[in-house]
Amino acid sequence: MATVKGVDGEKILFFDTGPIITLVMSRLGWLLPELKKKLNGRFYITPAVKYELVDRPLTVRRFEFEALQVMKMIREGVLEIFTDVPRQKVSDLIQLANNSFRLDAKPMDIIQEGEMESAAAALKIGAAGIVMDERTLRLFIENNRNMKALLEKRFQKQVTPDLTKMDAFSSALQDLTIIRSIELVGVAYSFGLLDSYVPEGKKGREQLLDAVLWNTRYNGCAVTEEEIHDLKTFLLDKK
Asked: How many domains does the chain fold into?
């Protein structure tokens, strides 16, 4: 499980769009203010992420209430909007990433502005990490040689990589710590924030973890069954 580290006791995290949607859709959005207190944290979103979480979904009835829940978190200071985004760095990184692979001889747009804003801003101020569920950027940073297979499976076509650009992109973001929403839920469990949901019986904690971890997967977190098993075992061993 990823470790949430910080500087001078303060844990600064940047959130991409996906994890907040996952937590809200999983009825776990209430964990964010509690985690902020426990971590002595500051939770940031960038303008592009705010647009994806609030401005755009406010115009779609199906997603409007989720947007209102995020607005409430912003209004209450749980989520802060980080405006000092290094724009040139974001542009350079997007350009590099989206020219690292070609499909039918054309560059592939694989990285979005919101996630790149979050990554660049986190690096700029030395944040503890970025909370991100999207598999593509995480794999690009952590094991870029597996990107070709992932993209070919996704698009069902042959993809041509540019290894020089790939390595330059991965190197630029190598100091970034990525935390998934499921790992953040694991941190919340470790803090005892989910204890009121533990049912009676010898395997009550196991049942709770099974329920809450799979809930995050079903609501958008990119995580394998094996990873869920390993995280559940790790958390149970700690109790």
From this structure: 2
pLDDT of 239:
66
- CA 49/CA 81 separation, integer angstroms: 9
Range of the domain at 113: 1-197
Question: Which parts of the chain register pLDDT below 50?
Answer: 2-3, 5-8
Query: Do 101 and 66 reside in the same domain of the chain?
Result: yes
What is the pLDDT, as a whole number, of residue 9?
63
The whole-number pLDDT of residue 10 equals: 78
- Give me the pLDDT at residue 105, please: 87
Give CA separation, 41 vs 57, 72, 192, in Å.
27, 18, 17
pTM of the model: 0.89
